[in-house]
Design brief:
By secondary structure, the chain is α+β, with helices and mostly antiparallel strands. It is built from two helices and two strands, in the order αββα. 38% of the residues lie in helices and 10% in strands. A hairpin with a 6-residue loop joins strand 1 and strand 2. The chain is elongated and about 55 Å long. 0% of the residues are buried.
Length: 81
Amino acid sequence: MKEQSSILDIVTVNDKGQIVIPVDARTIANINPGDKLLVMIHPTKDGIVLLKPDSLEAFARNILSQVNNARDNKKEELNGK
């Protein structure tokens, strides 16, 4: 199965501060009319992250896992030299 890119589209913010979430993103993320989304500021303060509140724990675990893997790989790289 081909891995899905996490970049799906570019959207424009209108004069009311609104955006349209592309249909592919809504389908993949199972976002339906009436769903609530948590709005978080990206750590760089250059953007936002939208996610379902129930998925915050899984999102945080995924990010921490990636950070830990990167740290472990760096340690292995430094120890291998």
